[in-house]
Each structure stands twice: as C-alpha cells, then as structure tokens.
Amino acid sequence: MTDSDHLIPVSVLTGFLGSGKTTLLSHLLRQPELARAAVIINEFGEIGIDHELVETSEDNVVALTTGCLCCKVRSDLTETLHDLLRRREQGSLPQKFDHIVIETSGLADPAPILHALMTDASLVERVTLGSVVTTVDAVAGEATLAREAVSRKQVAVADRILLTKLDLSQGDARALRERIAALNPGAPTLCALLGRIDAADLFANGPQRDARADVDAWLGTAHAHHHEHHDAEIISYTIVRAAPIRAVALTLLLEALAEHCGADLLRLKGIVNIAESPQRPAVIHGVQHVFHAPAWLERWPSADRTSRMVFITRRIPRRFVELLLDAIGAEVESVSAAEVTPP
C-alpha cells in the first residue's frame, strides 16, 4: 500500500522530564479525535495513564474506556510498531486504530524515533510521519533549555510547541517564548490550560492535502518569514529558489548534506519545484542524516511555484547551503548542456 491517504499517521509527543506530557496525554485520550488511536509509551516504569481510563489489559496492550489502545515499548520501538500493525491486520486487537501517538521518554532525543519511521522499509509502506509535538514547562522551561541540550533538540525538531503550566508561571512567559522562537521559528507555540488542548490543534498531519494552509503550516513559513534565527549554536533559516531545481541536483544536495552535515542537520522540511515535473511539487523532509523519500502533491496549492526549504541546524551557515546548492545546480546544468551539444 503506497497511497498516502491510506497510510497510518504516527505523531510524536516529546518534551523534557516534568513538562506535562502524561497529563496532556490523559486529557487528549478522552477526546473523540483520538478515539481510534494507538498510543505507544516509550518510557520506563508503568504506563502513565489514569487508572479510570483502563478497560482491559492483555499482554502489553491496554484497552482504554475511550476506545484507544495503549502499550509500552518492551525492547525496540520498531518491533513494537510492527507488532501493533500485525495485530491490527489479524484483527486480534480490541479496537482497530487509525492513528498512532508515540510518547517519548523525557530524556529522549526524538531523532532516532523519526529515523525509524523514515527508514524502515516495511514501516514506510504502512505509516507516515505526522506531527512532532514538544511540551515545554512554562515554569522551568528557561532553565531547562539553558542546561539541557536534549531539551533544545526536542524543541528544534518540533512541528508544534505546547507551553504547559502557564497557570503556575505567574507571567506571560515572554522570555521563554522568545527563546523557543529563536530555536524553532517555524513551529507555532500553543498553550495548554491545565494540561488541556484540542487534539485537532496538535495532531494535524503533514501536507497531504492540496491546501496552501497545510503546506505553509507544515513549513512554518508564516512564522519564519525567511529570516535567519540564532540561539547560541542552533540556527534556523529558509532557502528560497524561484528557478526550478533539477531532480538530480536535489538528490545530490541531500546526499551531500547527509554525508557531511548529518549530525548537525536537526531538521529539514521543504516543498520543491522539480524541473522535470513542474506541475507537481515534491515534499521533502529529513532529520540529521536520514531523509524521507520525496512525496508528491497532486498539484501546487497556490500560484506560488518557488521552492522553499526550511533548515534547523547546529552551526551550518545558510551561506554554506546556498553555495552548495548553487554549485551542484551549475555542475548539473553544465553536464546536461554537454550531453546535448553535438561534438
């Protein structure tokens, strides 16, 4: 099955220790949007779900009164996903899920989870990466971001940031919002009131529909404004190209970035005008050295045909990427011209 409309979206809920992920998840699971969801808890200890939600328990899968399923990772996340999908196909689960939410450990780097979702061949045929949501504690968030590198990375790779504990922060958290915006200007910052927020606001999926709002929201262009943002060593910027990019040039660019800059390329998202297929834009995204196979929209969502690539990096200057793209593009054009020129 390769039709993206039938792939099961996998959303990732991450955030540092004590930032309110479990409280948030307990409220989300009571909402109808997640009534047919499977939740994977990638955490040590017992599943952090309110006991009144639990209906039945079988093996490592817990059926909830809301219709959701919940399980915890026993050894390997990929194996857990395969097991859930296999049991879904066999009809051996209490409910049939159509969405998966992974809650990470508070100390976890979310990148390996995103890698698994993008690189496991059999998973790629069944699931698609949905939203990456990061919770940030409005009380302790500034100190945590200053002290913990993994918390900065959790913010940097997110599609949406959720501020929690605002009722305890005794302020508007302006300084924290500015720090978050410097780390990841493309991600909208939402607020949870007593751990509550609408699931639909958090778990909108990637640009799978032909609507401009979906693409712009996913890219974060409405927030990034094409400017370069710095937060100590983390840099965010958008590279825009009016001229179409040849498919081989894009491939070579992604290969070069993966090989030489992978560890420092925290997140890349883009919509690209491919010269060989101008009627359908390609959607690309990657985390560190792993890039998802390009997906194709059925049509351009607006009259704007520019290629837009949003980078969140650790010490990779915008100018380096621009020069690399220009050099690869010029070389590809030179080779193409030589091939069609008679001897």
Describe this structure as you would to a colleague:
The structure is a single chain. The chain has 343 residues and is α/β, with parallel strands linked by helices. The protein has a nine-stranded mixed beta sheet, sandwiched between helices. Strands 10, 11, 12, 13, 14, 15 and 16 form a seven-stranded antiparallel beta sheet that branches. Strand 8, helix 7 and strand 9 form a beta-alpha-beta unit. Helix 5 packs across helix 6 and helix 11 packs across helix 12. The longest helix has 23 residues. The chain is globular and about 75 Å long. The N terminus is likely disordered.
What key phrases describe this protein's structure?
12 helices, nine-stranded mixed sheet, globular, single chain, seven-stranded antiparallel sheet, alpha/beta, 343 residues, 16 strands, disordered N terminus, 25% strand
Helix content: 25-40%
Radius of gyration: 21 Å
Distance, first to last CA: 47 Å
H/E series = EHEEEEHEHHEHHEHEHHHEEHEEEEEH
Quick summary of this structure?
With 343 residues, the chain is of the alpha/beta class.
Topology:
Blueprint: E1 8-15, H1 21-28, E2 37-41, E3 54-58, E4 61-64, E5 69-72, H2 77-90, E6 99-103, H3 111-119, H4 121-124, E7 127-137, H5 141-147, H6 149-156, E8 160-164, H7 174-183, E9 189-191, H8 199-202, H9 212-219, H10 221-224, E10 229-231, E11 234-241, H11 247-261, E12 265-272, E13 282-287, E14 290-291, E15 295-296, E16 307-314, H12 318-340
Parallel strand pairs: 1-6, 1-7, 2-5, 2-6, 7-8, 8-9
Antiparallel strand pairs: 3-4, 4-5, 10-11, 11-16, 12-13, 12-16, 13-14, 13-15
